[in-house]
Amino acid sequence: MIFLDTSYINSLIIKNDPYRQYAKNIQPLLEKEAKITNITVLIEVLNSISPYNFFGDVVELKDYLLNLHDFDFLTDEDYEEAFELFNHYNRSINFSDCTILVSMQKHGIGRIASFDADFDKIRGFERIH
User: Fold this and answer.
1) Under a CB-based contact definition with an 8 Å cutoff, are residues 1 and 107 in contact?
2) I need a surface site. Which of 13, 32, 47, 106 has the fewest CB within 10 A?
3) CB under 8 Å to 27, separation ≥6 — which residues?
4) Mean pLDDT of the residues in the chain
5) 13, 20 Cβ separation under 8 angstroms
6) 26: pLDDT confidence band, cut at 50, 70 and 90?
7) 3-state DSSP call for residue 3?
8) Phi/psi class of residue 64: alpha, beta or left (left: φ > 0; alpha: ψ in -120 to 50)?
């Protein structure tokens, strides 16, 4: 199973994203793999699209993300753990990424499709980019 980060999803759906070709190159490698994301990614993706950079159907995009193999809705405890990670890393990793780390840990996932180099700061995770 692999976690799909905002930067990976955005690079597939936003027409002028600088990582678009990289994402298209790794997309076939991930096709047969179970995928997971979380509410943070859904929010970030929906907030990053506009009528000028995304010409798809927003409802289809939302449904795709919600219907991945797993979709993690964060609990109060998850947010508390994310805050602890945020402090542990001395805020060098943003809080949104900390919620992603919590989701990955909760589901035993060690790989993330992402163009965010901050994930390289965490031991035990492999970033596919």
Assistant:
1) yes
2) 32
3) 12
4) 93
5) no
6) very high
7) strand
8) alpha
DSSP 26-43: HHHHHTTS-EEEEHHHHH
Place 51 in a pLDDT band, splitting at 50, 70 and 90.
confident
Give the distance, in angstroms, between the CA of residue 128 and the centroid of all CA atoms in the same chain. 12
Write the CA distances from 92 to 2, 62, 81, 100, 103, integer angstroms.
23, 30, 16, 15, 19
What does pTM read for this prediction? 0.91
Per DSSP bridges, beta strands 111-113 and 70-72 are: unpaired
Q: What is the distance between the terminal CA atoms of the chain, rounded to a whole angstrom?
A: 16
Count Cβ atoms below 10 Å from residue 72 Cβ, excluding itself.
Answer: 22
